[in-house]
Amino acid sequence: MIRASQRAMGIEYAIRDVVLPARELEKRGINVIRLNIGDPGKFDFQPPEHMKEAYCRAIREGHNYYGPSEGLPEMRKAVVEREKRKNGVDIGVEDVRITAAVTEALQLIFGALLNPGDNILVPGPSYPPYTGLVKFYAGEPREYRTVEEEGWQPEVDDMRKLIDDRTRAIAVINPNNPTGALYEKKTLKAILDLAGEHDLPVISDEIYDLMTYEGKHVSPGSLTSDVPVIVMNGMSKVYFATGWRLGYFYYVDREDRLAQVREAIDKMARIRLCPNTPAQFAAVAGLTGPMDYLREYMARLKERRDYIYRRLNEIPGISTTKPRGAFYIFPRIEERSLWKDDRDFVLDVLNEAHVLFVHGSGFGRGGEWHFRAVFLPPVEVLEKAMESLEAFMKKKLSG
Ligand code: PLP
């Protein structure tokens, strides 16, 4: 056997791992309702027409070449304007980098920050690439507590306990995957203060920034004075273009503390050549164009969020907080005597109720005895899923 690297073999991604047993059922002709993957493009959500048109036009007009590794100036300028409008941040084109979506931004940023044995603070629970990629770069992800009873707000005192001299950054995911939390301004300020005390940058994942139901998203980039903040965002969620693989990040760093990190990131960016060129033209159309499609999509999502929230709380043995952003809900399994753990529960639900969730422990600390459901499908589909889950729970609890 030709051996693979330990680094690669150690990667876990719970969201896709549960798909294998679901596929087995589907092979046997069983219809599984999949509430596991957060891809709006698989449901009734599409990038707006003006973006699709701009993508096709760019290809037809010959923009099929390698672009600059930091991204096309047109898109970087569109990001500056969008972020000025959304967050009031004063950045320049030179502060913006374009990437193959937020996933590549994470690879570049973690790769540039981490030496073996260094650590990065990430939320617990968190979107799995955070822990997975930090480990890939021989770093240690340290998961800070987020408090379910407070709508999964980060606990700043817990963050403080996790910081040591090998800590390189604090990451926040807001609105959050998998919990749907929307972080309070005072919490973000406290995180910035803590980062300032320890001379750490804050990395802010804002991919769901305009997808909120109650309250508005606040960026730490808009609150900071001297603490360096790296803000990441992209076209996958708010612009509904997951498959285009395009995103960006920018530095809010008035004192130029990140100069060396920026240089390291640019070196890494050069050896991967460049992000998708024609997609960047589509992104310019999206970032500068009308956003009315989002109002309609958010109304749809809110109806689905309200429905699943109500129904899950009606089901015996399950309870849930209300997500305030993104399109995930993270219910708690109250009845614990019947399953070994949350993974066992999710597999039992899959096999008997034919609904696919992701086990909460796949998202790390604090995810134990929870599961994540995606509420992207129409209410009729969610209704079927909730009926099945309810029947399953009633049967299990009665006997
Ligand atoms: N960050 C968070 C918090 C996410 O939930 C996701 C996808 O689900 C991503 C990043 C990945 O984004 P992208 O498609 O831009 O790589």
Which strand order spans the largest sheet, edge to edge or round the barrel? 2-9-8-7-6-3-4-5
Strand content: 5-15%
Helix tally equals 15
Number-wise, the strands total 15
Model regions low in confidence, pLDDT < 50 over at least 5 residues: none
- CATH topology term of the largest domain: Aspartate Aminotransferase, domain 2
CATH superfamily of the largest domain: Type I PLP-dependent aspartate aminotransferase-like (Major domain)
- The computed structural class is alpha/beta
- Give the distance, in angstroms, between the N- and C-terminal Cα atoms: 48 Å
State the name of the first-level CATH class of the largest domain. Answer: Alpha Beta
Number of domain units: 2
The CATH architecture designation of the largest domain is 3-Layer(aba) Sandwich
Helical content class? 40-55%
Described by the principal axes of the CA atoms, the overall outline is globular
